[in-house]
Amino acid sequence: MTHALIDHLWQSTLFCTAIWSVTLAMRANPAAVRHWLWQFASLKFLVPFSALHWLGALAGLFAPVEVETAPIVTALAAATPVMSPASSLGGIASGTPGVLLPALLGAWILGAACVSLRWLRAWRSAVLLSRAARPAPGTSPDTCVTDADIEPSVARVFHPVVLLPAALLGRLSEPQLGAVLAHEREHIARHDNLKAHAHHLVEALFWFHPLVWFIGRQLREERERACDEAVIASGHNPGDYAAGILTVCRHCAGVHSKHAVAALAGDLTQRIRQILDGTSPVSVGFVKAFALSTGTLLLAVAPLFAGAVDDAARRHAEVEQHARALWDAQFAVTSVRDDGGVHARLSVAARELSIHNSSLRELVALAYGVESRQISGRGEWLDGERYDIRVTLHEDMRDPETFSPLALRTSVNKLLASRFNIEIHVNQQCQYPCGWRALEASEATR
Questions:
Q1: C-alpha torsion sign, points 96, 97, 101, 107
Q2: Which of the two residues, 340 and 326, has the higher pLDDT score?
């Protein structure tokens, strides 16, 4: 568990560092793009690569026998999340006192509780203010006026509303009020409250990681810049907008919260400078957009693909190991009557494997993982006789609970060649051992 946490933390740190470098290269581009990049860095703390790796393994995308996965596994070894420096810390961790882990857990719980309490109190305060607020006259339904001494802000995640302090309305001219309201409505259009609460969850869980707080600061800065850019792009006068922000600042500076989705969030000096500068952000362009989209897709798909390949390789190794154990096992075949229409029942134990009431067609279908109707050939010998097959191993089978019938393939070929002189052909290729002559030749060379 500790190693998994260390894996997740260093991977998230590396991912955040990569995002940081990308945002530095995109300083001239729209702030909304950089905000999304920082949002991905935040969400990475909630989605370990090991979880994606596990989902890929769970999907089982690759066949364990027909597909040769070893070269792919080798190529992806450097990208799989199971590789980590955590193994080098094992010797240190094993020698630590038994009281250290409970102490660390207690400190984490205390820190998470403090951060969560502050988060929930702010959330509850915003909800109560929105309930007590009244509709603002002459504005849209999503704008409310409150008598509380707050700054213009957005409350609630679902059905959000803009909260305006009543004492501020008389201090803003109509163009200034329109620009300030446009800023807050842009927060609603961008679902910034939802994004902010998602990062608050990250802060509560990973409060001890400095990069989490750095990401939070970057999210606030880019969020406000993105809204400022949208307000200017919609046609509002930069001078009126900057004057409106300064008026709000003079009126509400004493109640400003740096965590709020509000008019005074972010670096105000830098924001005013950029608003008055009048320079429009540079479009991302095809090359950068393609690179970002491709990188995002690879980050999501690579762990899934690696997990699927690793799982296929594991199942392939299990099938091969079980097949080797079955090759030298003793097979006892007994003719039986059909016992009621339930055919080819397979049971596996550590040293014994049994197939009950199976025809030869069903036996081949079981070993090759296909339906009986896909086995070509007709005759009484293929469907008329039914058999109980008991396989006794010379030593215990490893992991019998994971046994796959595909491990029977070579042994079934050997049984059919030695007892019935039957050859199995797949796509017109005779499968090893191909009949009793091939079996005799292989036995002679062993």
A1: negative
A2: 326
Residue 66's SS3 state is coil
What torsion do the CA atoms of 213, 215, 216, 220 make, to the nearest 10 degrees? 140
Distance CA 271, CA 221 (A): 9
Edge-to-edge strand order for the sheet containing 153-155? Answer: 134-135, 143-146, 161-165, 153-155
Concatenating the DSSP letter of every residue in 368-396 gives HTS-GGGS---SHHHHT-EEEEEEE-SSP
Q: Which two tokens stand for residue 238?
A: 């930069």
The Cα 261–Cα 191 span in angstroms is: 10
Q: How far apart are CA 299 and CA 208, in angstroms?
A: 25
Structure tokens at 74: 């080798």
- Of 439 and 62, the structure prediction assigns the larger pLDDT to 439
Task: Report whether pLDDT(82) > 60.
Answer: no
Q: Give CA–CA dist 419/122, Å, rounded.
A: 79
Sign of CA dihedral 375, 380, 386, 389: negative
Report d(CA 386, CA 339) in Å as an integer.
Answer: 10
Mean pLDDT is lowest, of 14-23, 55-64, 92-101, for 92-101
Share of the chain above pLDDT 90, in %: 23
**Closest CA relative to residue 413, chosen from 347, 319, 312, 323:** 323
Residue 67 has pLDDT above 50, yes or no: no
Residue 38, classed as helix, strand or coil, is helix
- In contact, 345 and 355? CB cutoff 8 Å: yes
Against a cut of 0.85, is the pTM above it? Answer: no
